[in-house]
């Protein structure tokens, strides 16, 4: 928890970094409690593939600190960007690496499949889950493509020292998967550069 407390970012004191000045901070979470906004999923083992920082994905992982925040850029009505970024701390680097390995195993298991998410008060949405790809610098990325809507998302994850950075970037009004992926890689690289160790 001490490491999380020392984080700084220009948007907030929540311990989540964001390089893009145009993104406005929204909701924040400081524990792994289940968000009622998440709804139900047809493949529970894939929670960690389609959503960052979910309790299921970190169960039993020895988490010592947790911060997550949502950021939005909605300057354009037709095209908007949403980022959800979780920063999760562990007792030591070995625990963080072990947890990252577990998460990536789940990503590989769910990659290439379709996962259906049903929000508490909305229509079911099917996602095509891409295969995880090594993006260099210890960062792994995975594309998410919701069926039938002009939204593209990317999941990006990495570990440094005793911390895992787990995030998702979603861009609406586009069918270009490269846009959220590049955004996610930029954010992850920025955050990793700010972490000690």
TrEMBL record:
<dbReference type="InterPro" id="IPR038232">
    <property type="entry name" value="PknH-like_Extracell_sf"/>
</dbReference>
<dbReference type="InterPro" id="IPR026954">
    <property type="entry name" value="PknH-like_Extracell"/>
</dbReference>
<protein>
    <recommendedName>
        <fullName>PknH-like extracellular domain-containing protein</fullName>
    </recommendedName>
</protein>
<feature type="domain" description="PknH-like extracellular">
    <location>
        <begin position="32"/>
        <end position="174"/>
    </location>
</feature>
<dbReference type="Pfam" id="PF14032">
    <property type="entry name" value="PknH_C"/>
</dbReference>
């Amino acid at each position: 928890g001490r490491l999380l407390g020392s984080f700084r970012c220009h948007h907030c004191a929540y311990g989540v970094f964001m390089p893009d000045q145009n993104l406005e901070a929204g909701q924040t979470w400081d524990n792994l409690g289940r968000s009622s906004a998440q709804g139900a999923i047809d493949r529970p083992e894939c929670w960690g593939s389609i959503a960052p920082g979910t309790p299921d994905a970190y169960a039993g992982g020895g988490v010592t600190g947790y911060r997550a925040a949502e950021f939005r850029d909605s300057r354009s009505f037709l095209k908007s960007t949403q980022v959800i970024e979780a920063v999760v701390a562990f007792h030591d680097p070995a625990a963080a690496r072990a947890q990252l390995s577990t998460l990536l195993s789940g990503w590989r298991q769910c990659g290439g499949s379709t996962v259906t998410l049903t929000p508490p008060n909305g229509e079911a949405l099917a996602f095509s889950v891409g295969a995880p790809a090594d993006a260099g610098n210890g960062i792994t990325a995975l594309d998410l493509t919701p069926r039938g809507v002009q939204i593209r998302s990317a999941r990006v994850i990495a570990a440094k020292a005793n911390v895992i950075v787990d995030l998702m970037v979603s861009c609406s009004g586009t069918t270009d998967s490269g846009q959220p992926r590049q955004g996610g890689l930029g954010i992850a690289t920025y955050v990793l550069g700010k972490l000690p160790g």
